[in-house]
Design goal:
about 25% strand; single chain; alpha+beta; six-stranded antiparallel β-sheet
């Protein structure tokens, strides 16, 4: 009887211990879940745009507001007060709800001008003058990708040729602008396009602009394929035939064999003429007589 009581006592103690351990583990798990949920819903006040702020314009405090933003996805370089960004110049365009971040503003002691901060490292910004047609009739916008086409009119009898410049494909457009040029004494507004190029591309674009007329071809968004074309002439366009001179074909000739002079000519005998056959008819009989030809 005493042994049975002892067994029951030990089993009870073990059950209580297991229950305590399970309770602690459950409590620890729930506390961890509560912490994670709290971190997920935790917010922090940051500055966002309440109205559109164009690229290159000063940030107006009237176009800003303070909102609660999830702390777990807080934008790097964000601000907590509107006076921290008031008067700063924007490098990018802000739409309502966009967080105002340091990376999209000109540094406080930085070089003036927006364009210098939009050029990728190792690249250059180069501007070329185009007409409305060459500029894709006004449909170009910063951020578009273009190919550059050069049309050259060679001197002499050669035909003008138009071709996409191989090194100037898929070029980003940084800005669209205008300049005033003098044409026949009259000021004319000429559209300009500023493109993001490498130093080598800048050299190619500079020399191309002095040789003929440049046109820009707008690419479809996401299209990065390199076009491989042979260029176009008016003859090729009208006939579909590429006018390239064929290389002359050299025909190998053998030297005539030498005829030996000490060989005597071979006398060729003429065949004997065929015999002459005469048919003689006497009454009802008929005979033939054969005579040899001389």
């Amino acid at each position: 009887m005493a042994a049975a009581k002892k067994t029951v006592y030990i089993a009870g103690v073990l059950a209580v211990a297991i229950a305590l351990v399970a309770t602690y583990m459950l409590y620890d798990y729930l506390r961890g879940q509560e912490k994670r949920v709290g971190e997920a819903v935790a917010t922090e006040r940051i500055v966002v745009a309440s109205e559109e702020i164009p690229m290159g314009s000063a940030v107006d405090p009237a176009k800003l507001k303070i909102v609660e933003w999830p702390k777990a996805s807080l934008p790097q370089g964000s601000f907590t007060a509107t006076d921290q960004v008031a008067g700063r110049t924007s490098i990018e365009r802000f739409v309502p709800g966009d967080p105002i971040v340091e990376a999209k503003l000109i540094p406080r002691d930085g070089t003036p001008g927006v364009m210098t901060y939009k050029i990728p490292e190792g690249h250059r910004a180069m501007t070329v003058a185009v007409d409305q047609v060459a500029g894709v009739a006004g449909f170009l916008a910063p951020g578009n990708m273009v190919d550059v086409v050069l049309t050259v009119a060679p001197t002499g009898a050669q035909q003008p040729i138009s071709k996409i410049i191989p090194s100037l494909q898929n070029i980003p457009v940084l800005a669209i602008g205008q300049i005033v040029e003098q044409k026949e004494g009259t000021p004319v507004v000429v559209p300009t396009v500023t493109m993001d190029v490498t130093p080598q591309q800048a050299e190619d674009l500079a020399i191309s602009s002095t040789q003929g007329r440049l046109q820009l071809v707008l690419r479809r968004a996401g299209d990065k394929e390199v076009a491989k074309t042979g260029g176009a002439t008016i003859t090729k366009v009208m006939t579909g035939i590429q006018t390239t001179a064929a290389a002359p074909v050299k025909v190998a000739t053998k030297a005539p064999k030498k005829v030996p002079t000490d060989v005597k000519p071979v006398e060729v005998k003429q065949p004997a003429p065929p015999p002459t056959i005469v048919e003689v008819i006497k009454g009802t009989s008929r005979t033939t007589v054969q005579f040899k030809s001389n």
